[in-house]
Design goal:
binds FE2/S2 (inorganic) cluster, 23% helix, 7-stranded mixed beta sheet, 8 helices, 6-stranded antiparallel beta sheet, alpha/beta, binds flavin-adenine dinucleotide, 2 domains
Amino acid sequence: MDEKNIYVPYRMRIEKITQEAPGVKTFRLKFVNDEDALSFSFKAGQFGEYSIFGAGESTFCIASSPTRKDYIECTFRQTGKVTSALASCEEGNVIGFRGPYGNIFPLDDWKGKNLLFIAGGIALPPMRCVIWNALDRRSEFGNITILYGARTVSDLVYKHELEEWGSRNDVKLITTVDPGGETPDWKGEKGFVPAVLEKMAPASANTIAIVCGPPVMIKYTFPVLDKLGFTDDTIYTTLENRMKCGFGKCGRCNVGKVYVCKDGPVFTYRQLKSLPAEY
Ligand SMILES: Cc1cc2nc3c(=O)[nH]c(=O)nc-3n(C[C@H](O)[C@H](O)[C@H](O)COP(=O)(O)OP(=O)(O)OC[C@H]3O[C@@H](n4cnc5c(N)ncnc54)[C@H](O)[C@@H]3O)c2cc1C
Ligand code: FES
């Protein structure tokens, strides 16, 4: 019997650390074992359990695109025990990774459609994976629009990539920061994401909307999309219920009969509406 224990993590070397925003870092991770690298694959929307020996595990999405074969990336905010331990790591250190887990954004079903990405704050990472995936397969999709907001200019993550997306003529990027406060030199919008979306009024015809953000942003964005003519099946989002095992064994993440780790984390608005209110 030489079956791999599903709880045993891959060993991953931190190849590069990027400070994205205050308290937010991106790790580029490479498999220590070349055979693991060869056999590993994932799809946009999936997540993993990232561990630091002696501290525990944390759930983060895989923030890099599956089309970039050589590595995976995660972006995390330092909030507690495990994320603080991870934040103290240096380039060259080895951490653990289990995954990939969860369902996927059905990119293949979206061929020929326009994609409208709406993200807030630290919720850009799950979307960044799909954005790069779609950009690496650019000819398969119609218009690509990205609306991204954060509390302040310094809270915007992936600043270099925002510049890159903003300079492409096959992407429409709108960035916004919350109203109030001084923002010298800021050339983007000022306003909350749902209000900026309403002003933009993107066409809903043949368009998929992907929404990731804090609960308050999601709550006020869905009615705007509804007003713009998006249907419950053309709106996608992700849930971030606390998890333990990541693959449907421990019952930590479930909402009614739905296991967010296994049946999600990607849900259409229609699926979300059918969940008990506790999510
Ligand atoms: C599918 C999924 C994908 C995720 N992707 C990312 C990601 O890409 N980047 C990222 O920064 N975070 C992500 N998260 C949230 C991340 O898992 C937690 O912030 C992290 O595990 C906290 O670990 P900790 O030990 O540092 O914090 P703890 O010491 O366990 O807790 C610190 C504080 O964070 C709160 N907290 C912990 N987990 C969650 C959670 N899931 N939701 C809301 N509050 C929580 C606790 O209640 C507490 O107040 C994701 C969660 C899920 C389920
Ligand atoms: S995290 Fe264990 S069942 Fe979902």
